[in-house]
Amino acid sequence: xxxxxxxxxxxxxxxxxxxxxxxxxxxxxxxxxxxxxxxxxxxxxxxxxxxxxxxxxxxxxxxxxxxxxxxxxxxxxxxxxxxxxxxxxxxxxxxxxxxxxxxxxxxxxxxxxxxxxxxx
Length: 120
Ligand code: FES
Hints:
Blueprint: E1 3-6, E2 14-19, E3 27-33, E4 36-42, E5 48-52, E6 66-68, E7 71-73, E8 80-82, E9 98-99, E10 101-104, E11 107-111, H1 112-117
The structure holds FE2/S2 (inorganic) cluster (FES).
């Protein structure tokens, strides 16, 4: 089960959204943003990715999926989504929005400016 964090409003380009240890390995954490929920995923080797929590197939909650390598398997119909590009893998077609994320000294930062640029 993904944990949920509130998106702190900040004018700086990068904003802190918690610690890497708050994201379980091979799991996720949701950040509520002005543009919708972003799912932070942590891989087995501690890489962190941020993508919208919406499957490109039928809007399944990707944060509830299974992390395998640098992909997540959607819990609804098992599409495999790349965490780095957001693209559906194999024969499936579709793409979920990705977000810039970085980890510094164990803290996870999202680029709010990046999210704002992707306005609807
Ligand atoms: S909603 Fe994700 S595979 Fe169908």
